[in-house]
Amino acid sequence: MKQLLNTLFVTTPKAYVHLEGDTLRVEVEREKKLQVPLHHLGAIVTFGDVLMSPRLLHRCADDGRAVVLLDRNGGFKARLEGAVSGNILLRQAQFRCAENAGQALEIARACVAGKLRNCRYVLLRGARDSRDAGDIDRLRQAARLLTGHIRKLPQAADADALRGLEGDGARVYFGALPALIRKDQREIFHFERRSRRPPLDRFNALLSFLYALVMSDCRSALEGVGLDPQLGFLHAIRPGRAALALDLMEEFRPVVGDRLALTLINRGQLTRHDFDERSGGAVYLSDQGRRTVITAYQSRKQDELSHPLLDQPCPVGLLPHIQARLLARVIRGDMEGYLPFLAR
Question: Is pTM beyond 0.85 here?
Fold first, then answer.
C-alpha cells in the first residue's frame, strides 16, 4: 500500500478495504495493514484481486471520490464515480490546454526534456560501469551531444521543432546504446538503429515489446486520473492513437524499457532461442521469451526509485500514476508547469 498525492494505491493481493467510522482500513488476512482518515484521500486505486466493502463504495460515490480498478499488471479496468464528478471539468481543461498553443508547447517541451535527460542518465551510468575505454568515450560523447539538445529546447518555437530535437536526440542515443551491451552478447543482439513495424533484429523486438508494456501502464494511469489518453500535446492526434499516453511514456522509455532490456541481455536471461524470425526479416519474441520479459517487467515494477518532487521512494510501477496526477494538476491550473520524472 502507498499513499501518494492524496491517492491510496492498494497493490497487495487479497487485501480487504472497508470503512471504520470516518477512516479507511486495509486488512490482509484479517490483520490491519493501514488505517487513514477518509477525508485525506481524493482517490483510491486498486490493483488486481482487492476487495472493497459496499459501504465504502457508497461513501466514495457520495463524496465524489474516484475508485479506480486496475488488473494486477496495471491494465485499466474501470473507474467508479458518483453523480457529481470533476472529470468532465478536467477533460474540458485538457481540451482548452491543447487549443492553447503556448500551454501545449510547454507540456510537450517538458515531455521531451524528461526523455532526453533520462537518456543522458542511462548513457552516463553505463559509462561509469564500463571498463572499455572505447565504449566509455562513445557513451560520454553521446551524452555531451544530448546535453546540447537539452539546452536547445527552450528555443524550440513550436511542436515540430521539438519533435525535430527529440528525433535527433533519439538518433544520438540509439547510436550509442550498443556500447551498453556486453561484448559477448553483441553478435546475438546486434543493433544499429531503431526499427519498428516490424522490428528487424532481436534488440528491436525486445524494445518494441517492452515499450508496449510501458505504453499500457501509461494509458491506464491517464484513464485512472480521468484524462483523455487520445488528446496529446507532443504526439500528433490521429484516430485511434493514444497520443497523451505516448507523451507520458517518453520519460519512462530509457529508465524503464531500455534499462530492463539491457539487464535481460547482459545477464543472459534472454538468448537467441527466445526469438522467432519471420519471412521478410521481421523478428519477434517467442512465447517463452514474452513470458520471461513479462516476469522481469513485473518484478521491475516492484523496485523503488526516489521521486525527485515527492522526495520519497516510490515503486516503479506507480510512477506513471504519479506523473499522470501531476499532469492533471498542471492542466487544471493547480501547478505552474509539468515536471517529468527524472532518474537520479
Answer: no
